[in-house]
Specification:
There is one protein chain. The protein is mainly beta. It contains twelve helices and 56 strands. Among the domains are: 343 residues, Alpha-Beta Barrel (TIM Barrel), CATH 3.20.20; 263 residues, Beta Barrel (Porin). It has a 16-stranded antiparallel barrel. It has a 15-stranded antiparallel sheet that branches. It has an eight-stranded parallel beta barrel with strand order 2-3-4-5-6-7-8-10, surrounded by four helices. Helix 1 runs parallel beside helix 4 and helix 5 crosses helix 11.
């Protein structure tokens, strides 16, 4: 799936004199078919294999992969070869396969689902030293062949982590060495999955230099693997391997017409044990006729002598057996031990201290190996044999991701599905409200790789209080467009590009941090961007921090962090890392405001491949609880039909009707306000992604309409209205004394036109053009000489900026207000009235944060500053139960301010999952010179309770009273009781 792009290099310092690991330099491999036999051994197998020991490469063609006997044949050949002291390798010809484009199907790909029979074959070859993935046909879709190569390599690596992996291309029929499609297939991402770049030669006489030049055009300086047509015998294979070793082709393989001479390869491998490299010192060999023969020199670590190989062939690879004279570079050697590789016999020669050393030898039996012993030198002449290594090349992004894919393939080979208990909590904070509302679903969770999940809402909690209804209410499912391409999943598409973003830790584990962004073809789709944390020790996935891009509808931003933890493995082996905890935040543009939705998901009691998976899932499906299923379109309700079957409801439930009954009282009203009505909400009104809500509750009515994507843009347009038909008392207090003679009864009707636009993912600007009709009447004890304000319309132009991130919410407001009429009010000569006060300004800044604690405990906090300019009694900030300047326990219209700083805190705890108890305190420091308040303290305290009531209702009870400022006349209490029921 993913494009594992962007090359990024990094260096890691190591101590001085650190040694680089040994790597093969010259290893001839004999190619055999599954039905063949392994060449005979030269003797007993060595206890430790040389890094340059020869090997047997078993070639399995595409038609043989699924054959029932192939794995046993490979296993037999490997046993025979290992018994002979040789290395083992498997060459698999990958067939054309159908690659799943669907992300779910790609997620569930295994070796056998990719290529039938590949799983048992790789199992038989497990622990092999070499795996060669052959691609004989590149005429099909290159992306599918690339996916096949990467997926197969990852599966191989997961089963045999220390093996070397090669990709093998074949010469095209039209000429040339590598097929033209090879460069596109072997992108940087795909190249990181293999160690060797292979070429199957049509002609063994092709020059190594030509192959090296062509290979560098595909992947510069990558070690080569070369396969060739059948050669006569082991001597010819050795000569071919020696010639290609000079261009960094450590692996050369070919079938042998006569395998009898293979032991000579074992003997050379033993002589080349250890750290071997090409030796640049000169050496020549000629026949008596003066024909030049091939001579190859190898340096062994810090040994100044080295090994000379004479294969008995000329530079073109043609056999030239018989006498020869070997001439060395200088008299720097004391002895030369000559090994006849075919027979195993050896003879030692002393070399003179002066002159050019010459040895008369013969290749009548086959290739010769000459081991030279360096002449001891004085310390002043000694050549430094070791160098300080101060740094080694770091891993590239592609290498990190390729190793991660191997880790993932190994993990996924050990499990198929799991069951768990899913506990997901959603915390809602509405812009302008100081508290949050929490909704939690908990129940059995069933996941099968490649199929998504089924989840039963067995238990529901509202603010931690257990819902007593027969089943959970089916609420609108708030979710962004489903992202089908996930970071780090290896699928057919190339959705992401990566870059190294440093190093860090995830839960104390050292990690590589890789940043990822959508690739060019996916930038306009529903896709993620973010960071992944990959363990340095085993390349495991430890954490994913992601943000969703190209959101549509009402969703403004989505941020998620997923952590991986150990889960007991079903095979009893080491535990497996799976995503068991997710923390996220979404910002929704709802009804011209932002709603912050925080989500916490924990998978509890995760059981991999449990024996009762099917029975427990069937039990959940047969039950009456609400269930949801993860589909390609997103999470959908899984409704139970009359016949008991469950079906996915693709028509999202976006609307809900609630009944509400209760009472509200504070003594600014003549009597308690009855609350009896209906509340309706639809987040996809008329199936056009419009939002509608309405509340009718006796004397209080409200409604809203919002289009979150006006004309298909991120601009939202909304209209809202509010009316309270009952007048409340607006009372004046001066120096703590209530002035009954100036009490005014007031009510208002408001409507607003809102236009909003998200400036960034977490910042939204909203403009409002509003109108509020205010009418006034005299109170019961109002002095007839006191003139009440004239009824008028207030036109308001407001700008609002809201910011939400990681549970923090900040809102700033500024508004210009114009009264349509503003006649003198109060007693004649009232100094507070001024005709210029038909215009006034209001402004505020608020910051809120909720702290979530274990067991549904929660602390809600907020601070704010509110201010006015050119305001009077009827335009100042007023405190009460409702609104952004609410003050717990204070009756409406009794306290006002030109300026104020407020702070609110609430602590809630759940008692036995049956009752939620919350302690509340609000504090305000008020500046209102007209009332005699010079930054005076007021505070209100209260308690609230929440519990499940009869008939599947949720009951909310709250009471509060002033506790600071009572000496200034702020007495009384506020009571709120409401029953809520979902229909």
């Amino acid at each position: 799936m993913l494009s594992l792009l962007s090359l990024a290099l990094t260096s890691a310092l190591v101590p001085a004199l650190a040694a680089t690991p040994e790597r093969p330099h010259l290893t001839p491999w004999v190619v055999a078919r599954p039905a063949g036999t392994a060449p005979a051994a030269a003797g007993s197998a060595p206890s430790t294999l040389s890094v340059n020991a020869p090997g047997l490469l078993v070639e399995v063609r595409a038609s043989e992969i699924g054959a029932a006997g192939t794995p046993d044949q490979v296993r037999r050949l490997f046993e025979e070869t290992r018994g002979a002291g040789r290395r083992t390798g498997l060459l698999v010809e990958l067939p054309e396969v159908t690659v799943p484009e669907n992300a779910r199907e790609a997620e569930a790909v295994t070796a056998d689902s990719l290529v039938p029979g590949l799983g048992p074959l790789l199992g038989a070859a497990q622990g092999a030293d070499l795996f060669v993935l052959s691609l004989p046909d590149l005429s099909g879709e290159i992306r599918s062949r690339r996916y096949l190569l990467m997926k197969a390599a990852a599966i191989v690596r997961s089963r045999s982590p220390s093996s070397r992996i090669a990709v093998l291309f074949h010469q095209p029929a039209g000429g040339g060495l590598f097929p033209p499609e090879a460069k596109e297939l072997l992108s940087e991402e795909a190249a990181a999955f293999v160690d060797l770049l292979g070429l199957d030669l049509d002609d063994a006489s092709t020059t190594p230099a030509a192959v090296r030049e062509a290979a560098d055009g595909l992947s510069f300086a990558r070690p080569l693997l070369v396969t060739a047509p059948a050669v006569a015998g082991a001597g010819a294979l050795l000569d071919l391997a020696a010639r290609f070793s000079g261009v960094d082709a450590p692996v050369v393989a070919a079938p042998l017409a006569d395998p009898a001479g293979v032991p000579l390869l074992d003997r050379l491998g033993a002589l080349l044990a250890g750290d071997v490299n090409r030796d640049g010192r000169s050496g020549s060999a000629r026949t008596p006729e003066g024909k030049a023969l091939s001579v190859f020199r190898f340096a062994k670590g810090t040994d100044l002598g080295g090994v000379v190989l004479v294969t008995g062939a000329d530079a073109a690879g043609l056999e030239a057996r018989g006498p020869l004279v070997l001439e060395l570079d200088s008299p720097s050697y004391t002895t030369a031990e000559v090994f006849d590789l075919a027979t195993g016999r050896s003879r030692s020669f002393d070399l003179p201290k002066s002159g050019t050393p010459r040895l008369s030898l013969t290749t009548a039996n086959g290739p010769l190996a000459i081991v030279l012993t360096a002449r001891e030198k004085a310390p002043s002449e000694a050549t430094r044999a070791a160098t300080d290594v101060t740094a080694v090349r770091g891993l590239t992004v592609e290498e990190i991701l390729a190793k991660h894919q191997a880790w993932r393939a190994g993990r996924d080979a050990r499990w198929t599905r799991f069951s768990a208990t899913n506990r997901t909590s959603y915390r809602f904070r509405l812009e302008g409200f100081p508290t949050t509302f929490e909704l939690t679903f908990e129940g059995p969770f069933f996941y099968e790789r490649g199929k998504g999940f089924d989840w039963s809402w067995q238990t529901t909690y509202f603010n931690g209080v257990r819902w007593k209804g027969k089943k959970a209410p089916e609420l609108p499912l708030l979710q962004p467009e489903k992202v089908s391409e996930l970071p780090l999943n290896l699928t057919f598409n190339e959705a992401y590009r990566y870059e190294l973003d440093g190093e860090g830790e995830a839960d104390g584990v050292p990690t590589w941090i890789l940043g990822f962004e959508p690739s060019e073809g996916f930038k306009a789709k529903a896709i993620y961007a973010g960071k992944v944390y990959i363990g340095k020790a085993d390349f495991s996935l430890r954490r994913v921090v992601a943000r969703q891009l190209n959101l549509t509808g009402e969703v403004q931003s989505v941020d998620e962090t997923t952590d991986f933890s150990e889960v007991a493995a079903p095979d009893g082996g080491p535990p497996l890392l799976l995503p068991v905890a997710t923390r996220g935040q979404s910002i929704l543009r709802t009804f011209s405001r932002t709603t912050t939705l925080e989500r916490t998901t924990d998978l509890i009691d995760v059981r991999l491949d449990p024996s009762d998976y099917e029975s427990r899932r069937a039990e959940a499906l047969a039950g009456n609880q609400v269930m949801v299923r993860d589909t390609d379109q997103g999470v959908r309700y899984l409704e139970k039909q009359k016949d008991g079957e469950r079906v996915v409801v693709q028509d999202e439930k976006t609307s809900r009707l609630f009944g509400l009954g209760g009472v509200f009282y504070d003594d600014s009203f003549d009597y308690p306000l009855p609350l009896l009505g209906l509340y309706y909400i639809d987040l996809d009104f008329a199936k056009k992604r419009k939002q509608v809500q309405g509340f009718f509750g006796g004397p209080i009515m409200a409604g809203s309409y919002n289009d979150p994507n006006l004309f298909g843009t991120n601009l939202d347009l909304g209209v809202d209205a509010f009316a309270n038909l009952i007048r409340g008392d607006d009372t004046l207090w001066e120096d703590g004394e209530k002035i009954e003679e100036t009490t005014v009864k007031a009510r208002s009707f408001a409507a607003n036109l809102n236009v909003g636009y998200p400036l960034t993912r977490h910042l939204k600007l909203t403009g409002t053009l509003g109108g509020t009709w205010r009418d006034y009447a005299s109170g019961d004890d109002t002095d007839p000489a006191f003139a009440v304000p004239s009824d008028h319309l207030v036109t308001r132009l407001e700008g609002r900026l809201s910011w939400d991130l990681r549970g923090w919410n900040a809102v700033g407001k500024y508004s210009l207000n114009l009264r349509s009429r503003w006649d003198p009010w109060g007693y004649p000569g009232n100094a507070e009235w001024d005709e210029g006060k038909d215009q006034f300004q209001l402004f505020s800044l608020a910051l809120a944060k909720t702290f979530d604690l274990p067991r549904f405990q929660r602390i809600d906090t907020s601070v704010s500053y509110v201010g006015t300019s050119n305001a009077d009694r009827f335009s100042k900030v007023q405190f009460g139960y409702f609104g952004g300047t609410s003050l717990r326990g204070f009756r409406s219209g009794s306290l006002r301010a030109e300026e104020a700083v407020t702070a609110k805190v609430a602590y809630g705890v759940v008692v036995g999952k049956l009752f939620r108890l919350q302690a509340l305190y609000d504090h305000a420091v008020v500046n209102d010179p007209a009332a005699g308040y010079d930054w005076v303290n007021f505070g209100g305290a209260g308690v609230s309770g929440q519990f499940s009531g009869p008939w599947s209702t949720l009951v909310q009870l709250e009471a509060g009273l002033p506790v600071v400022g009572r000496n200034r006349g702020q007495t009384g209490f506020v009571l709120y009781l409401v029953f809520l029921r979902s229909f």
